[in-house]
Design a protein that fits this description.
about 160 residues, alpha+beta, acyltransferase activity, transferring groups other than amino-acyl groups, disordered C terminus, Acyl_CoA_acyltransferase, GNAT_dom, Aminopeptidase, 7-stranded mixed sheet
Length: about 160
């Protein structure tokens, strides 16, 4: 399996929108489709695509806060059939390495759901807030963060 993580290109958008739709309603609310399109067009800073043997199977990125002290992990999504194959772990480790190369950042945060937060715990993220039905009914916000430099940067399992 040849995994490549590369910068997002505008030509990736149709494939990523299709991947998002494949994750609705299990991991994303239908209302998030327009939000993702808006993010890709106007708000992404550092966004990456995961390819395996030349096929786009996932994506995810991060943005910096205005003071450039916090990196916010954003919009992770994967082909449902490729989940559990360590692609999410590879992408998360890659982003942490990218973030570590940017001067001045000391915190990484992620806003996720009650469905996915255990994945981020494996990377040392700790829950700081929960807001019920934040994303949509049945999709709670779980706010998590961790210091940039953390002992758990290479989890053994996904």
């Amino acid at each position: 399996m040849n995994i490549q993580i590369r910068p997002y290109q505008h030509s990736d958008k149709p494939q990523l929108m299709s991947l998002l739709k494949r994750n609705i309603p299990d991991y994303f609310a239908p209302s998030e489709e327009a939000d993702f399109a808006e993010y890709l067009d106007h708000h992404r800073e550092y966004y990456f695509v995961v390819e395996v043997d030349g096929i786009v199977l996932g994506s995810g990125g991060f943005n910096l806060t205005e003071d450039r002290k916090t990196a916010k992990i954003s919009w992770d999504l994967f082909n449902p059939e490729s989940q559990g194959k360590r692609l999410g772990s590879a992408l998360t480790r890659f982003r942490i390495q990218q973030i570590q190369s940017i001067e001045g950042i000391d915190l990484i945060s992620v806003r996720t759901s009650q469905l996915v937060y255990p994945f981020y715990q494996k990377f040392g993220f700790e829950t700081t807030a929960i807001v019920k039905d934040y994303w949509d009914i049945g999709f709670d916000l779980v706010q998590m963060e961790r210091p940039l430099h953390h002992a758990i940067d290479k989890p053994e399992s996904e």
